[in-house]
Fold:
Amino acid sequence: MVVSNAECAGVSWDTLVRVSEPPVATLGEVPDACEQVTFTPDITYGIPGAFLDSVRWEITDGTGATVYASADLQPGPITITGAGSYALSVTAYNGCGSSVATEPFALLEGPSPQFAIDTNFVCVGNSIAVTDSSGGDNLEYLWTVTGPGSATITTPTSASPTITFDNGIGDYTLSVVVSNAECAGVSWDTLVRVSEPPVVTLGEVPDACEQVTFTPDITYGIPDAFLDSVRWEITDGAGATVYASADLQPGPITITGAGSYALSVTAYNGCGSSVVQRARHLPCWKAPARSLPSTPTSCAWAAPSR
Structure:
């Protein structure tokens, strides 16, 4: 304004008047992350920063405790650590009013795989069950099986699937990758042995006269490592045991003395057992005290009569 009178020159005076509105705070999204996040808030106030009286920033955790606070209009990078739910809020004030904006975000706990299987030995055609006790948030699973045969997983994305081993004996690797939307996958695996019952095949024992020494010709139908135990036994005609062994492949065996004998071998594993028996008669002839018979008696191994 100009102030004057009829005789004096005018004198000017002025002042500034600020006209504002209440702030309107708008927050951009805060990204979820894996156990830790660093971000710079994306904030607008709807009016120039100079038209604000004050600002209050706050981050609270799931219990309501304040883990971050600031009065800066544009705070720099903020780092929050620790799995949980959080809320970022900003309140802007001026003489016309105030505005609050809130943005939730989550820090997910990374996967910590922990599993148990009900057995690590199974027979072809049978199944194993998995129990999950893994730690972590919003977990996702992807199961696979590798091995010499085929296997079927009920639901490969399940936390606790059932796995059926369809065919093929051998050692299988059961694996899973556990992850979530924010955290990298973590692998877990275990070995499962898949077997069948043994099928014992025993070769012939050579004919002999009064004494025999032989090394059994034996196959079990499955790898030796897939057997739990073996029982060898030779009994005489009275049923007495004259030889016994638990060796998978026993060394040379010597049996002496006239009579009837039976050699048997039984193989065991978790899928079943198999037994084979051979009968034998010694001697080729029975030597009398003074003379030998003109025609010796034949001696051979044969299957026992049934």
Remarks:
- The chain has three domains: 26-108, 115-195, 201-302.
- The first strand starts at residue 2 and ends at 3.
